[in-house]
Write a structure and sequence with these properties.
The protein is an alpha/beta fold. The protein has a domain of 150 residues: Rossmann fold (3-Layer(aba) Sandwich), CATH 3.40.50.1000. Helices cover 43% and strands 16% of the residues. It has eleven helices and eight strands. It has a six-stranded parallel beta sheet with strand order 3-2-1-6-7-8, with helices on both faces. A two-stranded antiparallel ribbon has the order 4-5. Helix 10 links the parallel strand 7 and strand 8. The N and C termini lie close together (10 Å).
């Protein structure tokens, strides 16, 4: 494959948003669980549509949760269950092209690696936020560029991939911005799990599955 492909993670390689799933576990016995989860989903959508900054989105969602290591431990072994249907059906595509596939996500490395390892994506080509564990709670490493605005753009710049041979695949405005900053030739809106009109309007191509993406690649 002559192209490098940068994949988003949440709602792309997997059919969930990590913080929403983690929230379901962390808030299990909270009487306000549904109200809080609804607010988290609302914040997620605003961030993905570019209505609020990613920094604000991440900070606001984390503040609504009381995440502990035990919650991460519950979700981690279940992560491969959430792999998007067409991704699972085409897992050989990821293994065969692992040298050309990158994952850049605003999600969390501790929960992403079980999936990327399963798909045979090289660990050193996976970039994500990370939790810091303290005695009392879990915090987000705010020094990670992916915890800040334009984090994906900053990470992509450091990779120094040839923009003429780079494709970005994801469901959010943060993915599109990689192309906007001229670090990729194509932005592909991935809609197998969710469709965002504000994202689709910016896309060079809209796909509903990995099969659609593979077909596109075969014609390049």
């Amino acid at each position: 494959m002559k192209y490098y492909i940068i994949f988003d993670f949440d709602s792309t390689l997997v059919k969930i948003e990590l913080l929403e799933q983690l929230g379901s576990i962390a808030l299990k016995n909270n009487p306000k669980k549904q109200k809080i989860l609804k607010e988290i989903k609302n914040i997620t959508n605003k961030g993905m549509e570019g209505k609020i900054s990613f920094t604000k989105s991440l900070k606001s969602r984390i503040e609504l949760l009381n995440i502990k290591q035990e919650h991460i431990n519950v979700l981690k072994p279940k992560m491969t269950r959430f792999i998007s249907k067409s991704v699972m059906l085409n897992k050989d595509f990821f293994a065969t092209n692992s040298k050309n596939i990158y994952v850049i996500s605003g999600g969390f490395m501790q929960l992403i690696l079980p999936v990327t390892n399963y798909l045979k994506i090289n660990k050193n080509q996976v970039f994500a936020n990370n939790f810091i564990t303290t005695k009392t709670k879990i915090k987000v490493n705010i020094d990670n560029p992916l915890a800040k605005n334009l984090g994906k753009v900053k990470v992509c710049k450091k990779l120094k991939l040839n923009p003429k041979h780079t494709i970005v695949v994801g469901d959010g405005v943060s993915d599109y911005k990689i192309k906007k900053h001229k670090l990729a030739k194509y932005f592909v809106a991935y809609c197998e799990n969710i469709k965002r009109d504000s994202v689709i309007s910016k896309a060079d191509l809209v796909v509903n599955s990995i099969n659609d993406l593979i077909k596109f690649l075969s014609n390049l």
